[in-house]
Amino acid sequence: MLDQTRFVTVFNTYSLMYFDPTWTYLVPDDRWFPRVNAATSIAQALVNGAPSSWLDGAVATAFTDDARLALAAVPVDADNVARVSLEEGARGLDQTVLNRMQTQLTRSLATAGIQGVDMVVAAQPLPAETVPWRPTTVDSRPLVRTADAFGSASGSSAGSGTSIEPIAGLSEAMLTVDATDIEVNADRTTAAVRDAAGAVLMVGADDAIATLDRRTGLVAPSIDPFGFVWSVPAASPTAVFAYSETGAQSAIAGAWPGAVQIVAQRVSRDGTRIAAVVRDGSRYALWVAGILRDRDHAPTALGAPKVLATLAGAPTALAWLDAGTLAVLESDDTETVLYTHEIGAFGDALRGPEGATTVAGGLPSGVRVRAADGELYAQRGANWQHLASGIEVLAVQQGSPR
After folding, report:
1. Fewer Cβ neighbours under 10 Å: the N or C end of the chain?
2. Is the CB of residue 376 less than 8 Å from the CB of residue 389?
3. CA-to-CA distance for 91 and 64, rounded, in angstroms?
4. Sign of CA dihedral 250, 254, 255, 261
């Protein structure tokens, strides 16, 4: 047995990189390996292994039985380039497959500080290069709704130069909706909205506004990269519906089994995972599950949920900060706490601004928090910097335009 202090001196967390099923995004799968010979451990797990069981069916890998390791060891030369020896079958693979393999290896080994990767068969280099992928970073400027504007806010505070840059088309449509929660897709063409009446809407930049869900007690909705809006009532965690851009409703099988209440749920920016804050019995907990889709990318089911943490306080909001880190706002009788958790690693708690009710991720991995009185704050280390006043809604960004 090792206590946490000693454990992190011997082991470190590294991200195995997989693709989403459309080969558009890279998805991290964090693992703990000894710091010594980390490159070998990463390559063995990525090339010869498989994604974590809770991600089964939600992510894709370019490595097949034709491209396993020929040598267990992965040496790293003086230029910090890893040499990965593959079996003979790798020679016959399509160039696209080789390039995706190169990308997964390069990005995975980069988390161990490796600067380059050579894939070889019988000491002969394989021609391959990394492929482009879509990042999941967001605009560093918070996306907000005020009494008379919607868009990206800049400036230090409402009284000293805060300005809001509107989103063409979408801002005008958003001002016609009495929104309490807003999540905008990466291309900034569509938003999932919960209005003051508690209904879930889809708002488009073409002024199209559609009411999708009128069930009682809905939590804040989430929108995925394929345009599906996710909605669920707080009292019925298993009754998760996804709505297409045409308004077609699909029930999601296997949603949050065992939960008796759901406080919040958010789809990851790559569309492969969904996180939720649930109540399972007498406690609140943070869960995450893989999203299973059909050939048309429509969500059909969730994989078995992975329990990340039991929460100490009463949660109020949830957000993805980056591709692998979640944030939860909790409160009790004395204070508000921001709990952050890297999937596969440990969690951390920080005291938040008084009365904080909404959280959203920024760049790089920044945190923005809105308080009930409309004050907006940004995390700066262990402190909070005031950004603006008069913020009615702090919106969630699901990425950035291409």
Report:
1. N
2. yes
3. 13
4. positive
Q: Which two tokens stand for residue 267?
A: 């789809």
Strands 163-166 and 179-184 come out as unpaired
How far, in Å, are 255, 258, 276 from residue 236 at the CA level?
Answer: 10, 11, 13
Give residue 207's identity as a one-letter amino acid code. Answer: D
pLDDT-above-70 percentage for the chain: 98
Q: What is the pLDDT of residue 66?
A: 87
In the sheet that holds 347-351, the strands lie side by side as 314-320, 325-331, 336-342, 347-351
Over the chain, what is the mean pLDDT?
94
Q: Which residues pair with 309 in a beta bridge?
A: 286
Helices (H), 21-162: 38-47, 95-110
What pLDDT band is residue 71 in, cutting at 50, 70 and 90? Answer: very high
Number of neighbours of residue 81 by Cβ within 10 angstroms: 14
Partners of 190 in beta bridges: 204
The predicted model scores a pTM of 0.95
> Of 236, 222, 326, nearest to 271 (Cα)?
222
What's the gap between Cα 123 and its chain centre? 39
Distance CA 153, CA 60 (A): 37
Closest CA to 84 of 31, 36, 42: 42
Backbone angles phi, psi at 107, to 5 degrees: -75, -35
Q: 205 with 173: CB under 8 angstroms? A: yes
* Segment 170-195 mean pLDDT: 97
DSSP 316: E
Residue 316 CA, chain-centre distance (Å), reads: 18
Half-sphere exposure of 151 (CA within 13 A, CB side): 15
CA distance 14 to 12: 6
| Alpha carbon distance 237, 391 (integer Å) | 30
pLDDT at residue 156, as a whole number: 55
CA dihedral 386, 145, 151, 298 (to 10 degrees): 120
Tokens of 124: 């002969």
Q: Give the H or E element holding residue 170.
A: helix 170-174
